[in-house]
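tokens incoming
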């Protein structure tokens, strides 16, 4: 973005500072003047009842920005009370507020050589932001330039010692960070185990017991916020005597949830009884050592040691302990792993202290009581029309971002004095990128391929090499970080390790070869300047999940992730949405050599089926280019691990990413992922097996026995007589209800008839035109279901089988009680359940009316006296009047899932109700931009 060189010391009136050169901007022309701006209305509605919960009309954004990006920025980042003159209404105001603070601070602290350099910095930064070339993390947009504390960091690491005062400080500090909308991580390994004695002679409580208090505090504070999952990480060392209890903590709670749900308690998301479940507000990770992993690999005993004396308290079988970790992760996705020796081998400041913990998403790893501010580059902005990568502008943009991020530490405020002191002394930065998955697909690279990994490794190496080279240049102007002198040898050793990894990078094609050549030059300059000047920043790069800011930049993919699906939904001005095939697909097909007619046919096929299998004219060897995180052709778990391993040697920190495994994955599969992550040099790793969380219809008991290797005893064979069911025919006259409905634009009628005394006995369905295939299938299904009901099949059985069935048509309905449906079947059986099943049975299935959902949100008893309603309502045929359509965004994730052929096991956004999607090891809501972790 900018071409810069270090200024020389003051000589002949010249001041010391950086020199800047324009790249995208022009002298005398403001970057805003080169953009076409337009006014829009942003209206957000309540997902529960359709009422308007946010409205700001006439906001101003570039014409190129999507509706979704503009909506998210308006609702999340514009400051000032809505409806007052103080409220921001233009992206220009937002960017001016933020960049103005950066520019003023840079001038006050002597970063630039001349006033012209200041103007170039200001203009280039504004150009990059309004053109979605990169974005700072969310706290910058929330706070910088406002009357609030100038909080710029999204990631924090705390420290807890083995004293009650320290533990209580932990609770308080965590609460302050949560209240500010950020997340923190902590290692509890200094706290004595429950197997050790206190000075008073009693037994210590152990860290797991103190986790209960912190979990309750986090749950209480976040309940007033916008996310369901707290942004919090808890780490315990593998040699802690309470490690087994820590490993199994969340898995036991999942067992509790299943038992309570089976007993009739409301354990659904937001349910009134779910608060009884503990430890759900944090991600848990075990900090494993090389010693432990070698013991697992070779087989042998491993020692658990006292916290104060280091003496061996117990010896365990390393393989057994490792299996318990994998088994717990198989059951509930926790714990993840952090590889302690690898992390500290790449530590730039070991003389100050070890790295013991991470932020909630595991990408920030540095000193205790420290923080990191993030920024992410939109890689697709550097893909030229000829599919080459714009290396020089990428280099210059990286220079610009590192300069700005370092400036922000100078003016930033911090939640605690200790964090402020450490961060100002070590100036940790976290530059990263988004849209890697889209970039690879657009250039014809499969995500899980040597070529794809070579591109990712080369880009990451270039980014970090430029960042540290710029950090050395900044050190010449404004000095190295305060802790550099005592850590200089270690810091330079890590720089050599990065450069050595770059030398070992194996290139595959022209694209990555050219990037690698530039990366080698940057690392050479970095080492030379660092030897002379030192470094301004102890840390420079990591890969964050880029949840909200990824949406702000209109990125197709987040962080290092592959594409989630080939079909997406685009919001339209004025409301509504349309389904589109990813725009990277035609570009990829063209890159692979397909003609326009072939491209159109393949894109049409993908739009209809959601995948490329059997697409007309598409060669099978090209299928892998279009593999996604989930769906028909999901990337194999080790494909994710290998991609992480390709980028990790070129990052100061780590990578926020979850390795997704299919529901059929075994405990051994997770053991392999954890072991290979260690062998490949990763710093941290988390897994998620589809549907491992509570909410799946199958009982987990049978799965657990099979997973643990417990074989069921062969049952004794007995011959018993079974009474054949008899049909209970409907009388000639019976009460019935007719419901007119619309699902995803498809209209239909349902007539449900009941026995005069009790129970549903007949259903007729009318869809589409008489004689159509759909109408015939529905007629046949109606007859089959009616016969089943008359033979005694409970309605509850039908509901449990057909609710959540996914196929088109799907989406928005006109029923106020069932706003969204994943298929016509899903709607029909939700409506039948609401009309004919008692509350307790529906609650067990997670089916509630609009009134019941509203009552739940108010904390009231949502149970409805069905008998009273029945007595007050006439027993005759009636039609349900259509309600106002639900907001278009409510259908997005569910309809998307129907194309992906999978159920996204993710929480609902508590702000707008849309199902969130994975973003690194966290989640992001595409409806409103809320995240469950770093953004």
């Amino acid at each position: 973005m900018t071409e810069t060189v270090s200024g020389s010391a003051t000589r002949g009136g010249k001041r010391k500072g950086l020199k800047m050169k324009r790249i995208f901007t022009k002298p005398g022309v403001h970057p805003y003047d080169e953009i076409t701006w337009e006014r829009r209305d942003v209206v957000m509605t309540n997902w529960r009842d359709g009422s308007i919960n946010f409205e700001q009309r006439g906001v101003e954004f570039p014409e190129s920005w999507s509706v979704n990006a503009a909506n998210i920025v308006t609702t999340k980042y514009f400051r000032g009370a809505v409806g007052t003159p103080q409220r921001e209404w233009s992206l220009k105001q937002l960017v001016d507020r933020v960049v103005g603070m950066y520019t003023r601070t840079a001038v006050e602290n002597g970063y630039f050589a001349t006033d012209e350099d200041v103007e170039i910095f200001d203009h280039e930064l504004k150009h990059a932001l309004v053109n979605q070339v990169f974005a700072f993390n969310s706290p910058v947009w929330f706070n910088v330039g406002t009357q609030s504390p100038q909080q710029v960091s999204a990631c924090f690491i705390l420290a807890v010692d083995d004293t009650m005062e320290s533990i209580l400080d932990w609770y308080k500090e965590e609460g302050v960070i949560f209240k500010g909308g950020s997340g923190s991580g902590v290692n509890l390994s200094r706290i004595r185990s429950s197997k050790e004695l206190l000075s008073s002679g009693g037994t210590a409580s152990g860290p797991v017991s103190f986790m209960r208090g912190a979990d309750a505090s986090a749950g209480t504070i976040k309940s007033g916020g916008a996310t369901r999952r707290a942004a919090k990480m808890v780490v315990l060392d593998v040699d802690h005597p309470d490690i087994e209890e820590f490993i199994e903590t969340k898995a036991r709670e999942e067992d509790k949830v299943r038992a309570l749900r089976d007993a009739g308690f409301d354990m659904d998301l937001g349910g009134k009884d779910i608060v009884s479940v503990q430890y759900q507000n944090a991600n848990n990770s075990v900090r494993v050592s090389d010693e432990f992993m070698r013991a697992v690999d070779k087989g042998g005993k491993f020692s658990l040691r006292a916290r104060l004396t280091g003496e061996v308290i117990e010896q365990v079988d390393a393989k057994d302990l490792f299996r318990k970790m994998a088994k717990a992760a198989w059951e509930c996705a926790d714990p993840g792993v952090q590889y302690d020796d690898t992390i500290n081998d790449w530590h730039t400041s070991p003389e100050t202290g070890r790295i013991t913990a991470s932020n909630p998403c595991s990408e920030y790893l540095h000193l205790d009581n420290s923080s990191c501010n993030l920024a992410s580059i939109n890689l697709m902005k550097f893909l030229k029309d000829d599919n080459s990568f714009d290396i020089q502008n990428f280099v210059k943009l990286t220079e610009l971002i590192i300069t700005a991020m370092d400036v922000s530490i100078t003016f930033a405020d911090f939640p605690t004095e200790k964090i402020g002191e450490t961060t100002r002394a070590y100036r940790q930065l976290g530059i990263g990128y988004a849209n890697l998955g889209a970039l690879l697909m657009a250039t014809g690279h499969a995500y899980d391929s040597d070529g794809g990994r070579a591109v990712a490794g080369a880009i990451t190496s270039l980014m970090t090499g430029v960042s540290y080279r710029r950090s050395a240049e900044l050190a010449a102007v404004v000095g190295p970080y305060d802790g550099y002198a005592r850590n200089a040898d270690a810091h330079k050793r890590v720089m050599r390790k990065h450069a050595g990894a770059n030398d070992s990078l194996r290139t595959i094609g022209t694209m990555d070869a050219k990037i690698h050549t530039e990366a080698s030059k940057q690392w050479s300059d970095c080492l030379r300047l660092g030897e002379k000047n030192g470094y301004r920043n102890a840390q420079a790069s990591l890969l964050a999940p880029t949840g909200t800011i990824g949406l702000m930049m209109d990125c197709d993919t987040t962080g290092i992730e592959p594409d989630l699906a080939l079909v997406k939904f685009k919001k339209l001005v004025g409301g509504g949405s349309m389904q589109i095939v990813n725009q990277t697909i035609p570009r990829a097909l063209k890159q692979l050599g397909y003609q326009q007619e072939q491209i159109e046919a393949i894109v049409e096929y993908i739009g209809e089926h959601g995948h490329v299998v059997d697409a007309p004219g598409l060669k099978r060897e090209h299928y892998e280019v279009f593999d996604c995180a989930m769906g028909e052709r999901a990337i194999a778990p080790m494909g994710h691990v290998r991609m992480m391993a390709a980028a990790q040697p070129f990052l100061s920190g780590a990578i926020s990413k979850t390795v997704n495994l299919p529901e059929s994955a075994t405990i051994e599969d997770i053991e392999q992922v954890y072991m290979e992550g260690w062998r490949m040099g990763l710093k941290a790793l988390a897994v998620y097996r589809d549907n491992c969380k509570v909410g799946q219809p199958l009982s987990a008991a049978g799965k657990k026995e099979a997973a643990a290797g417990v074989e069921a005893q062969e049952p004794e064979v007995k011959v018993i007589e079974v009474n054949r069911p008899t049909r209970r025919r409907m009388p000639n006259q019976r009460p019935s209800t007719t419901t007119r409905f619309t699902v995803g634009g498809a209209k239909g009628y349902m007539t449900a008839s009941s026995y005069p005394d009790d129970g549903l006995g007949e259903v007729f369905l009318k869809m589409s035109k008489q004689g159509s295939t759909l109408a015939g299938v529905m007629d046949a299904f109606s007859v089959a279901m009616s016969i089943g009901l008359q033979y005694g099949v409970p309605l509850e059985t039908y509901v449990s089988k057909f609710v959540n069935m996914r196929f088109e048509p799907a989406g928005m309905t006109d029923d106020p009680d069932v706003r969204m449906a994943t298929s016509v079947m899903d709607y029909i059986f939700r409506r039948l359940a609401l009309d004919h099943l008692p509350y307790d049975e529906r609650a067990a299935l997670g089916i509630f009316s609009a009134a019941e959902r509203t009552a739940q949100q108010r904390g009231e008893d949502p149970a409805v006296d069905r008998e009273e309603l029945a007595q007050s309502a006439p027993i005759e045929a009636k039609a349900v009047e259509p309600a106002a359509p639900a907001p278009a965004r409510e259908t997005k994730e569910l309809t998307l899932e129907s194309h992906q052929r999978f159920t996204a096991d993710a929480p609902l956004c508590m702000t707008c109700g849309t199902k969130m999607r994975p973003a690194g090891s966290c989640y992001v809501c595409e409806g409103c931009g809320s995240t469950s972790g770093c953004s």
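note: The longest helix spans residues 450-478.
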